[in-house]
Amino acid sequence: MTILPNIEEAMEDARNGKLSPYWQNNLKRECLHGELSAEERLALSELNCILSETPQWSSEEELCHDMENIGGRVRFCRFWNEHYSMVQLTEDRNGKYSTAYVLDTETTPDVRKVAALQAQKELADRMQAWGVSLLDTSVPEQMKYDFLAEAASHLMQVLNDPEHITG
């Protein structure tokens, strides 16, 4: 199976400065899991040249841009370049909140724990800036939350158990 179409799509995104670290890492993984043809190696070399010459949006910038385009905003996000992980809390145009999270299952449990603790610390700092307190009760997972405190508290709860966050 060839990954040439994926490399070519990545090259197009990279030329436009929109190949986020998340997708760069994803493509690297694809390349590591198989033998590359001469054509794929050439395309990968060209992609690396493009990446070295063209600044790329971070995943956070891309998320902010996408949320603004639909009338929402990013309240909190943390993407890691070193591994395939992210944590985010967004607000839609109707004032409802959503959470999303992935901790890379191909890293060690220690790396996952450090990432979760780092996200918790950053989220706690953000909650303090918002004037939002952690709720004392368990907050079940939902598609949308009515209140920022609910969404943030749920995210903190999830991060307490990094081994159960998969992706």
Describe it for me?
This protein has a 3-stranded antiparallel beta sheet with strand order 1-2-3, with helices on both faces. The chain folds into 2 domains: 3-53, no CATH class; 70-160, no CATH class. The mean pLDDT is 88. It is elongated and about 60 Å long. The relative contact order is 0.12. It is an alpha+beta fold and 167 residues long. Helix content is 51%, strand content 13%. The chain has 6 helices and 3 strands. The protein has helices at 4-15, 21-32, 38-53, 59-69, 109-130, 148-159, and strands spanning 73-80, 85-91, 97-102. Strand 2 (85-91) and strand 3 form a beta hairpin.
Features of this protein?
single chain, 167 residues, alpha+beta, 2 domains, 3 strands, 13% strand
Characterize the largest beta sheet: strand count, sense, and whether it forms a barrel. 3 strands, antiparallel
Number of domains: 2
Radius of gyration: 18 Å
> Could you say which structural class the secondary elements and strand pairing correspond to?
alpha+beta
